[in-house]
Automatic annotation (TrEMBL):
Gene3D superfamilies: Ribonuclease Inhibitor (3.80.10.10)
GO annotations of cellular component type: cytoplasm
Keyword field contains Repeat: yes
One Pfam family matching this protein: LRR_1
Alphabetic keyword roster: Leucine-rich repeat, Repeat
Protein name: Leucine-rich repeat-containing protein 2
Annotated source species: Hipposideros armiger
Domain of life of the organism encoding this protein: Eukaryota
This protein's record includes keyword Kinase: no
InterPro entries, alphabetized: Leu-rich_rpt (IPR001611), Leu-rich_rpt_4 (IPR025875), Leu-rich_rpt_typical-subtyp (IPR003591), LRR_dom_sf (IPR032675), LRR_domain-containing (IPR050216)
TM region positions: none
Amino acid sequence: MGHKVVVFDISVVRALWETRVKKHKAWQKKEAERIEKSSLERIKEEWNFVAECRRKGIPQAQYCKNGFIDTSVRILEKMERSSLIRQSSPSKERDKKSSAFVFEISGEHWKALPDSLKEQTHLKEWHVSNTLIQIIPTYIELFQAMRVLDLPKNQISHLPAEIGRLTNLKELNVRFNHLKSIPPELGDCENLEKLDCSGNLELTELPFELSNLKQVTFVDISANKFSSVPICVLRMSNLQWLDISNNSLNDLPQDIDRLEELQTFLLYKNKLTYLPYELLNLKKLTLLVVSGDHLVELPTALCDSSTPLKFVSLMDNPIDNTQCQDGDEMIESEQDRQHFDKEFMKAYIEDLKERESVPSYTTKVSFSLQL
């Protein structure tokens, strides 16, 4: 019995498969078009893109323009490279702080600086925070290499006059302590660039000698009891950032336009009833934040969209302070509230800076802070 051989035409089989392949490709094309037009698929794509950007620490302002999300892979790669560059900076900062030239302590178990510190005059930075330390010793004058004196949230009641011997000092941060005055000798630190005395609650003036600080670009004296802008501040010709919010200002000086380099001016939570026309002479001023609860008039040109100024008027809700029998507890609560307030405003301003475009004038933004 022989084998059975099936004889068929190969062209018929090929035609059959070509037809099937053609139909399958047509179906694939139609399905791709359907998916492309599907809003759900678009939303899913945008959500995955946003999640990826957030995971890589890319700010929203970089990929969201006027409410639309750009899901370009090329943009993502570009932003990722930029993000990696930014992320490398904190690691460098950590390495810097771990170096032999930086002294750093923190915690309430510290009530005084260690005795061994006196021998380490080579140090360039002090970072002392959240301690119970009340006194900065006079031997600080021995630290001639000092660049950064960072002393936030301690119990310091005064600064020694010897601080004026630190002629290479660039940054002084004494925010949220218990200072009632600043030594005039600080004016001898002619290389100082940043001064932060915020949150001391009792500061009412700065010494005129600080007028010598011509290199200062940043001054924060918020959350104190200033009734006017200090004269020495008006003579800091390179000043770019001034925060004098949460004080008792009734008006601004007519010569406020002396601050020709000023870019950011924070005035919220004062007692201002008007803004002087001289503010318009500050050609580099881009952000002005002023409490709106007492304002009755302001220069109309301030809201002109043609100016680079972003004017934000905040109407603050009153905050009831809880009275405590223990005076120290009341002060601590007030400092905590002021600190929370500053963090809120800092986040608000950072959000404004991230936006591509922001309203030039916000009539009312109400918020309340409670601890």
